[in-house]
Amino acid sequence: MGSLGARTNGTSSPNHVEIPVHANTNNVVEPKPTLGVEESNIDYSQRAQWLRAAVLGANDGLVSVASLMMGVGAVKEDITTMLISGFAGLFAGACSMAIGEFVSVYTQYDIEMARIKRERKGNNNNNINEVNEEAQREKLPNPFQAALASALAFSVGALVPLLAALFIRNHKIRLAIVVVAVSLALVAFGIVGAVLGNTPVTRSCFRVVIGGWIAMAITFGLTKLIGSAGI
After folding, report:
1. 28 in any annotated domain
2. 230 lies in some domain
3. What pTM was estimated for this model as a whole?
4. What one-character DSSP code corresponds to residue 40?
5. Structural domain contains residue 2
6. Which parts of the sequence are annotated with region: Disordered (predicted)?
């Protein structure tokens, strides 16, 4: 008040202290951006193109070859017969999976290409069509990649029961080791598929393990029954 009074009277008091008042209109403090966790934009539909072939191929190789070996082991105690049947299942299954996946994906590729060509004919802007067509071609699944992934994955899965039985001479212990090894591998494949596909891990593991046990049990039981009947 002293400063204001002195200025009003046109005089200045030597003892007063002037407190400058600054306008803060230009010193606006912008709010800091809140720190958050950025959500990953993973395209799981694109990942599924090779994930489906790889995971399904590994599970098929594991379950089918293990079931084949369990079926042979139900009537034959000879380890050589069991291993030969397992390797035959590996070779036949890998070729079958590769050919089937190639035909399936190539059919899907032809269907998508036909759709792209129809869209190009229906659009008069050729430049835009060429750009869009090139982008859509890059997103299409590769039949050769799917076939190779399926064959390799099947072979990897099939090797698990073969390696588990390779050095076990006792017949009953060999069968038990195969079941344990296959069960652990099924759990591992279930976890990998769930993590990469962003699906529940427990449900995925439970599904593949129970399915594998059922396949081995049915094959073992029916083969044992046929062998006991003397067919």
Report:
1. no
2. no
3. 0.68
4. P
5. no
6. 1-32
